[in-house]
Design goal:
The longest helix is centred in the first third of the chain and has 18 residues, at 23-40. The protein has helices at residues 11-19, 23-40, 55-59, 81-98, 155-163, 167-170, 178-182, 190-206, and strands at residues 48-54, 68-75, 106-114, 119-127, 130-141. The protein is α+β, with helices and mostly antiparallel strands. Belongs to the 2-5A synthase family. InterPro entries: 2-5-oligoAdlate_synth_1_dom2/C, NT_2-5OAS_ClassI-CCAase, NT_sf, Polymerase_NTP_transf_dom. Residues 36-115 form the Polymerase nucleotidyl transferase domain.
Length: 211
């Protein structure tokens, strides 16, 4: 495996110097994302249950000069995936309209891409006296693990529900698993995160496609 810039010696030092982002850089990104999260919690016409940060920034697997911040926007008020899907395009339009409004510390939110599932933005946010640039995906979703009584449904029950749905509905459940996927990347799994960072660095510097 070719690692441009690595000439032997301590691999840990190479990861620390070249691959792993500086802690101050990550702190600035997290601060900028928090500002956008607070703005989205006030989304008019929608009841926001919670916002989960995923992507490489949320999972702690970002590499230097390459970081994405994905926000999964969980909404209240839907008792089925079908009911949510019937209104998802309206929700995406609400998000786009809301983020066009002037907001403290957010200097620019420019749409890069729209799909039927999400919005991708190029963002510029003022944080600690500097402007932080980042790319962000915003994905509306519902919490399929939350029961009507407010408790958590067993994962097996959710799987059984998914199996009963047609493919065009079932495929939309995946984003709702983001918190369980994120839990794999616990802080104590630092070596695993560095391995993922190293693979990302190798992919980027060798122009490889990794699935």
């Amino acid at each position: 495996m070719s690692l441009p810039g690595y000439n032997g010696g301590s691999l840990e030092k190479f990861i620390d110097d070249v691959v792993r982002p500086p802690s101050g850089f990550l702190a600035d990104l997290h601060g900028a994302v928090d500002i956008i999260v607070k703005t989205l919690h006030q989304l008019p016409g929608n009841s926001v249950q919670k916002i989960v940060q995923t992507g490489s920034l949320g999972k702690g697997t970002a590499v230097q000069q390459s970081c994405d911040a994905d926000l999964v926007l969980f909404l209240n008020g839907y008792d089925s995936m079908e009911a949510f899907l019937a209104r998802r395009q309206r929700i995406l339009a609400d998000i786009e309209k809301w983020l066009q409004q002037p907001a403290d510390q957010i200097t620019r939110m420019t749409i890069k891409r729209r799909t039927q599932y999400n919005l991708t933005y190029n963002c510029a946010v003022r944080y600690r006296g500097k402007t932080v640039q980042l790319e962000m995906d915003i994905l509306p979703a519902i919490d399929v693990f939350r029961s009507k009584s407010g408790g958590e449904r067993p994962i097996r029950q959710v799987y059984e529900e998914m199996k009963s749905k047609p493919e065009n509905v079932r495929s939309n459940y995946s984003v709702s698993f983001c918190e369980k996927q994120k839990a794999i990347f616990r802080p104590e799994n630092a070596k695993v995160k560095d391995l993922i960072r190293l693979l990302k660095y190798w992919k980027k510097t060798n122009s490889k496609s990794v699935k």
